[in-house]
Design goal:
mainly alpha, 3-stranded mixed sheet, 3 helices, 3 strands
Length: about 80
Amino acid sequence: MPAPEAAAQVQRLCAFQVMGSTAQSVQAAIALAQEHQLQWRDALILEAALRAGADVLISEDGQAGRRFGRLVVENLFAG
């Protein structure tokens, strides 16, 4: 990829909000994993999406259609 195109792609990515982890967010993810029978990494992603106020979480796993409050999990690869 040419440098100007790469720079433009990075600039587009900078528009996204980055959700860092804290001790409290890790504890919340543990609670989500236990309550909803989720894999640890899925719970961490879900917790960050909930904290960010997301309405939709795009996932490639079998969680498609599940709702967590107002957040719904969608799988764009499901046919």
